[in-house]
Write a structure and sequence with these properties.
Elements lengths: L21 H6 L1 H20 L1 H11 L5 H29 L2 E4 L2 E4 L1
Antiparallel strand pairs: 1-2
Length: about 110
């Protein structure tokens, strides 16, 4: 098994990771860019509206423990905000490539 922390201690279990292949990037860059931008908007919504984001998740996955989901979202929201303010969000909005360790993300 490969763990993200094998590549960087910054890539813990709470780090959002989007992966694709070099082929997908080469063959359909517009889809890759659109997906990454949509994911970024979703994360921004979850940060800004943690309660509503938890409700959406619970509506679509009703078997989850609602108290755990809501507490997790409240806890993760400020942590993700700090991560985004630490540079990832700048890369997402600039349309640039960001490389961390041996991973490359194309925005």
């Amino acid at each position: 098994m490969v763990y993200l922390t094998d590549y960087s201690e910054k890539l813990d279990y709470y780090t959002p990771v989007l992966a694709t292949s070099e082929k997908m990037i080469a063959d359909d860059p517009d889809t890759v860019k659109a997906f990454v931008k949509a994911a970024a908007r979703g994360y921004e919504f979850a940060i800004d509206q943690p309660g509503e984001a938890a409700d959406i998740l619970l509506k679509n996955a009703p078997d989850l423990d609602s108290e755990l989901v809501k507490k997790s979202q409240e806890w993760l929201s400020p942590a993700i905000r700090m991560m985004l303010q630490d540079g990832v969000n700048k890369s997402l909005k600039s349309g640039k490539t960001m490389q961390t360790g041996c991973m490359k993300m194309v925005f």
